[in-house]
Amino acid sequence: MSKTILEILRESFPNQKFDMDTDNYGGSVHAFFIECDAEETLKITWEKIRNMIGVYFQSSLDSEFEIWNIYLLFIIPVNVDRDLKHKIEHDIMSSRKIVVDNHEKINDVDFKKFLFSEHITNNNLKTTVFEKQKLPFSKNKLISQ
Known about the structure:
This protein is α/β, with parallel strands linked by helices. It has one domain: Dna-directed Rna Polymerases I, Ii, And Iii 27 Kd Polypeptide, Chain: A, domain 1, CATH 3.40.1340. The chain is built from six helices and four strands; from the N terminus they run H-E-E-H-H-E-H-E-H-H. The chain has helices spanning 5-12, 39-56, 64-67, 82-89, 111-121, 141-144; strands at residues 17-24, 28-35, 70-76, 96-101. Strands 1-2-3-4 form a four-stranded mixed beta sheet, sandwiched between helices.
Protein backbone atom coordinates (compact mmCIF):
# COMPACT_ATOMS: atom_id res chain seq x y z
CA MET A 1 0.00 0.00 0.00
CA SER A 2 1.37 3.40 -0.92
CA LYS A 3 1.72 6.18 1.65
CA THR A 4 -0.35 9.32 1.67
CA ILE A 5 1.28 12.69 1.15
CA LEU A 6 0.77 13.51 4.83
CA GLU A 7 2.52 10.30 5.90
CA ILE A 8 5.43 11.09 3.56
CA LEU A 9 5.73 14.65 4.90
CA ARG A 10 5.47 13.59 8.55
CA GLU A 11 8.19 10.97 8.10
CA SER A 12 10.46 13.35 6.21
CA PHE A 13 9.99 16.29 8.59
CA PRO A 14 9.22 14.83 12.04
CA ASN A 15 9.69 18.17 13.83
CA GLN A 16 6.89 19.83 11.90
CA LYS A 17 3.13 19.29 11.96
CA PHE A 18 1.17 18.69 8.77
CA ASP A 19 -2.52 18.76 8.01
CA MET A 20 -4.53 19.04 4.82
CA ASP A 21 -8.01 20.23 3.95
CA THR A 22 -9.83 19.87 0.64
CA ASP A 23 -12.96 21.82 -0.21
CA ASN A 24 -15.01 22.04 -3.37
CA TYR A 25 -15.34 25.40 -5.12
CA GLY A 26 -16.22 24.44 -8.67
CA GLY A 27 -13.50 21.81 -8.25
CA SER A 28 -11.26 20.58 -5.48
CA VAL A 29 -9.07 23.13 -3.70
CA HIS A 30 -6.31 21.63 -1.54
CA ALA A 31 -4.74 23.43 1.41
CA PHE A 32 -1.71 22.08 3.28
CA PHE A 33 -1.13 23.47 6.76
CA ILE A 34 2.53 23.25 7.76
CA GLU A 35 3.38 24.22 11.33
CA CYS A 36 6.98 25.30 11.92
CA ASP A 37 8.42 25.96 15.35
CA ALA A 38 11.11 28.43 14.29
CA GLU A 39 12.12 30.67 11.41
CA GLU A 40 15.28 28.64 10.77
CA THR A 41 13.19 25.49 10.31
CA LEU A 42 10.99 27.30 7.80
CA LYS A 43 14.03 28.64 5.96
CA ILE A 44 15.59 25.17 5.62
CA THR A 45 12.48 23.15 4.78
CA TRP A 46 9.94 25.18 2.78
CA GLU A 47 11.38 24.37 -0.67
CA LYS A 48 11.77 20.67 0.16
CA ILE A 49 8.17 20.53 1.36
CA ARG A 50 6.96 22.35 -1.77
CA ASN A 51 8.87 19.90 -3.96
CA MET A 52 7.57 16.82 -2.13
CA ILE A 53 3.98 18.01 -2.45
CA GLY A 54 4.60 18.68 -6.14
CA VAL A 55 6.09 15.25 -6.80
CA TYR A 56 3.99 13.00 -4.55
CA PHE A 57 0.65 14.81 -4.62
CA GLN A 58 0.26 17.40 -7.37
CA SER A 59 1.65 15.16 -10.10
CA SER A 60 -1.06 12.57 -9.38
CA LEU A 61 -3.94 14.99 -9.92
CA ASP A 62 -5.93 14.81 -13.16
CA SER A 63 -7.91 18.03 -13.09
CA GLU A 64 -6.27 21.28 -14.26
CA PHE A 65 -8.36 23.09 -11.69
CA GLU A 66 -6.96 20.96 -8.85
CA ILE A 67 -3.40 21.21 -10.15
CA TRP A 68 -3.53 25.01 -10.04
CA ASN A 69 -5.42 25.26 -6.75
CA ILE A 70 -2.97 23.96 -4.18
CA TYR A 71 -2.11 26.19 -1.23
CA LEU A 72 0.71 25.76 1.26
CA LEU A 73 0.13 27.68 4.47
CA PHE A 74 3.25 27.84 6.60
CA ILE A 75 2.19 28.62 10.15
CA ILE A 76 4.80 29.89 12.56
CA PRO A 77 4.30 31.40 16.04
CA VAL A 78 7.01 34.08 15.65
CA ASN A 79 7.56 36.94 13.25
CA VAL A 80 9.35 35.88 10.05
CA ASP A 81 12.00 38.00 8.38
CA ARG A 82 10.34 40.13 5.69
CA ASP A 83 12.76 38.99 2.95
CA LEU A 84 12.22 35.31 3.71
CA LYS A 85 8.45 35.76 3.78
CA HIS A 86 8.58 37.60 0.45
CA LYS A 87 10.76 34.91 -1.12
CA ILE A 88 8.39 32.12 -0.06
CA GLU A 89 5.15 33.90 -0.95
CA HIS A 90 6.41 35.04 -4.36
CA ASP A 91 7.75 31.65 -5.37
CA ILE A 92 5.74 30.61 -8.45
CA MET A 93 6.71 26.93 -8.46
CA SER A 94 3.81 24.45 -8.15
CA SER A 95 1.51 26.14 -5.64
CA ARG A 96 0.56 29.31 -3.84
CA LYS A 97 2.45 29.75 -0.60
CA ILE A 98 1.31 31.83 2.35
CA VAL A 99 3.35 32.50 5.50
CA VAL A 100 1.18 33.06 8.56
CA ASP A 101 3.46 34.39 11.25
CA ASN A 102 2.74 35.44 14.82
CA HIS A 103 -1.03 35.51 14.22
CA GLU A 104 -3.30 36.45 17.12
CA LYS A 105 -5.68 33.53 16.40
CA ILE A 106 -2.95 30.88 16.05
CA ASN A 107 -4.21 28.89 19.07
CA ASP A 108 -7.92 29.06 18.19
CA VAL A 109 -9.71 25.79 17.55
CA ASP A 110 -10.99 26.98 14.15
CA PHE A 111 -7.71 28.58 13.07
CA LYS A 112 -7.26 26.42 9.94
CA LYS A 113 -10.86 27.04 8.92
CA PHE A 114 -10.26 30.77 9.43
CA LEU A 115 -7.10 30.64 7.28
CA PHE A 116 -8.92 28.78 4.48
CA SER A 117 -11.60 31.45 4.52
CA GLU A 118 -9.17 34.36 4.86
CA HIS A 119 -6.64 33.36 2.20
CA ILE A 120 -8.37 31.00 -0.21
CA THR A 121 -12.14 31.37 -0.48
CA ASN A 122 -12.44 34.90 0.93
CA ASN A 123 -15.95 33.99 2.06
CA ASN A 124 -15.33 36.01 5.21
CA LEU A 125 -15.49 39.28 3.26
CA LYS A 126 -18.46 41.46 4.03
CA THR A 127 -19.86 43.24 1.02
CA THR A 128 -22.41 45.98 0.85
CA VAL A 129 -24.13 47.01 -2.33
CA PHE A 130 -25.31 50.58 -2.43
CA GLU A 131 -27.98 51.80 -4.76
CA LYS A 132 -26.41 53.97 -7.40
CA GLN A 133 -27.67 57.52 -7.27
CA LYS A 134 -28.84 58.87 -10.61
CA LEU A 135 -27.90 62.47 -11.17
CA PRO A 136 -30.12 64.58 -13.37
CA PHE A 137 -28.68 65.49 -16.74
CA SER A 138 -28.50 69.12 -17.74
CA LYS A 139 -27.15 70.56 -20.93
CA ASN A 140 -23.95 72.60 -20.66
CA LYS A 141 -24.78 75.88 -22.41
CA LEU A 142 -21.12 76.60 -23.24
CA ILE A 143 -20.70 73.34 -25.17
CA SER A 144 -24.13 73.16 -26.84
CA GLN A 145 -24.12 76.58 -28.55
